[in-house]
Design brief:
It contains twelve helices and twelve strands. By secondary structure, the chain is an alpha/beta fold. It has one domain: Alpha-Beta Complex (Spore Coat Polysaccharide Biosynthesis Protein SpsA, Chain A), CATH 3.90.550. It has a five-stranded mixed sheet with strand order 3-2-1-4-9. Strands 6, 7, 8 and 10 form a four-stranded mixed sheet that branches.
């Protein structure tokens, strides 16, 4: 079983220079479309990768998707996990978008996620991470795959209710913000579902390469439309959400609540007690295995350092 992680260092001058000509075509740059928080890196990739080495040692290979960049993890891994058999490989966008180079460069995670099954030598079962996803306790293979089925962490939501909520959403700089939930809702509509859609969390996603290959081979127009946007667009669906629906339709998904296994932390404009409260939750609930720390780049230095120090101690790593 492999792991795939999407990563970008938005602080890289070369990356900023590459993006600049395309940003000029956007009338209003907002956080949901092309804001700097979508690309900023504060070293999360080190902790993300270390959490896999520490708590999922059965993984065969970790693929890190980048755009002519490299996080240079080799020395860090050798120092902390020199006995591990997990391999690490960088996958450039030019490899991920092979045969579709006309869509490059791309600065859009939803387009990138649509292509993960293109990675050469990728295992049939692979788990997709963002670089702000972390394992925080030991994981078993069965936490993601059981026989020929996947463990689907999330819950069902009503399509019509959330359509109404979208209509009531206020405009921001002249447009409706492109939300995480909206992309999941659109995934259901692409499959012509009428009543419910699957709501996933910011949590690792167990995928099957053959399922995505087969679906996009039969629905090439959906594939091309989803990878054709340089920046995030309201016209894009969430590939993971669509995939879960396909697996449920085939009776190959086990619905599982995230209530007791997932800790979400977003330390942006929070009071002094926010982080201690979140860490107490982790200590009190021994079932929590997955964690996401959203928008760490927007946190205060004190809050960011507190959380990264906690992860460092938890993962028993040195820099």
């Amino acid at each position: 079983m492999d792991v795939v992680i999407s990563w970008v260092d938005g602080n890289d001058p070369a990356h900023k220079k590459k993006m600049q000509p395309y940003l000029a075509s956007i009338k209003h740059i907002t956080d949901d479309i092309a804001g700097t928080t979508r690309y900023n890196s504060v070293g999360e990739i080190y902790y993300c990768v270390a959490s896999i080495f520490r708590f999922a040692p059965f993984v065969r290979k970790i693929f890190i998707i980048t755009d002519n960049q490299n996080p240079h993890l080799e020395t860090f891994i050798q120092k902390n996990f020199h006995r591990s058999t997990i391999q690490l490989e960088i996958i450039d966008h030019s490899v991920l978008f092979r045969s579709y180079e006309q869509f490059l460069p791309v600065f859009n995670s939803r387009a990138i996620e649509t292509c993960t099954f293109h990675i050469p030598d990728l295992s049939e079962n692979y788990v997709y991470f963002n670089d702000d996803f972390f394992l925080v306790r030991p994981i078993k293979h069965e936490d993601w795959y059981r026989d020929n089925r996947i463990v689907a962490y999330g819950h069902w939501r009503n399509i019509w209710l959330d359509k109404l909520l979208w209509l009531a959403k206020p405009l921001k700089k002249g447009h409706k913000p492109v939300g995480f939930k909206d992309s999941m809702l659109l995934s259901a509509l692409k499959l012509k579902r009428k009543w419910t859609y699957f709501h996933l969390e910011h949590i690792p996603h167990p995928l099957k390469k053959s399922v995505l290959e087969a679906f996009y081979a039969k629905n090439q127009s959906l594939f091309f439309s989803n990878i054709s946007h340089k920046f995030r667009s309201a016209k894009q669906f969430n590939t993971q959400a669509l995939y879960y629906l396909l697996m449920f339709q085939a009776n190959r998904a086990i619905l599982t609540s995230t209530k007791d296994v997932f800790l979400y932390i977003k330390p942006v404009r929070r009071g002094a007690g926010y982080i201690p409260r979140k860490l107490r939750t982790f200590e009190q609930n021994k079932q929590i295995k997955f964690c996401c720390m959203g928008s760490l780049d927007m946190a205060t230095d004190a809050h960011r350092n507190e959380l990264l120090s906690w992860l460092q101690q938890l993962l028993k790593i040195e820099f």
